Amino acid sequence: MRQETLEIQDQSDKQPLVIWVIFFATIISFMGLGLVDPILPAIAKQLNATPSQVSLLFSSYNLITGVAMLITGVVSSRVGVKWTLLTGILLIIVFSALAGSSNAISQIVGFRGGWGLGNSLFIATALSAIVGLSIGGTAKAIILYEAAIGLGISVGPLLGGELGSISWRGPFYGVSVLMVIAFFALLIKMPQVPKPKVKSSILDPIKALKYPGLFRLGLTAFLYNIGFFTLMAYSPFVMNLDEHGLGYVFLGWGLCLAITSVFVAPKIQARFGTVKSMCAMLVLFALTLLSMGIWTDHAIVVIIAVIVAGLFLGTNNTLITTAVMQVAPVERATASAAYSFVRFIGGAFGPWLANKLAETYSPHVPFVTGAIFVLFAMLVVAFGRKHLAHVDTASH
Prior knowledge:
Membrane topology: Multi-pass membrane protein
CATH class of the largest domain: Mainly Alpha
Keywords: Membrane, Transmembrane, Transmembrane helix, Transport
Number of strands: 0
Number of helices: 18
GO molecular function: transmembrane transporter activity
Largest sheet: none
GO cellular component, one term: plasma membrane
Oligomer: single chain
Subcellular location: Cell membrane
């Protein structure tokens, strides 16, 4: 009897091949974010652009990604999950190649917006597909998704640093080539997933935000993404490192993010609960940004702080994504789109704000400002715990 129980448990832990295909494609998709990071100073120097102009590469990408989240459900409910994923990947292939062929910062910013459109179609659909098709429940599916994100973000900067040392155009072309591989892997291996019986509306994600728990999680992500992208888009300008150096720093950051998202977050959530765990991670991240603001002139402090921040961000990302999937009585894809719409707007505002504050006031101000926004995010969670308490019950 015991042996049969163990066999059933082992079978439930084995994921179907389609999950690993989506997992692989998600890794490559999120490599696109990290690939760009080591080349930000190089782009600024070679295209005679200010840091705030270069930061618009993140802003346009995140803005279009966030707004396009409103149509992901509309598209996937009509053409199906497989073709939504493939369409998103195809757009990333085209626009990343066009960005690499550009000769002006304004062109790159524009093409990054198109890249963001493809990214929105892919990531929202990938999350709901992994959750819907995986074996073992929502929590395990979210961990898989966050692991793919962590691996993509961690490996991306290393490859970006290597390609960027040859030319700043290299990482853009690198993303295009890698996504071609992902395109054919999904085209060949992913079966057709049945379309939902009810067609989604563009208003569904907006309507979903009427649920207080989902709205609070979106607002939390909006605020802490300002701090997140302050670290991503501004810290490369104060570390005084070349493309290789920046690649290794963000490799360390991404590895910390990947490890904690998979191994640490579930244990912390099980022991302390979602709300307490999220509050603790947000406070620790805010303190990390504050230390970067105090010792901005000491590159070694900033480097260590960036890597350490990955520990808190990885844990918090898994906690908040798991909560989003369970906090409101709506379809998972709709919940993901609503949440992502709000958080990516914060991701669009943060990079530009950070670099503009540095140009206007001093190099210390962006990190301190980012820390304040992250602390506000913690307060949103803490004061909304009555709307989030049921998440832990759903997880179990």
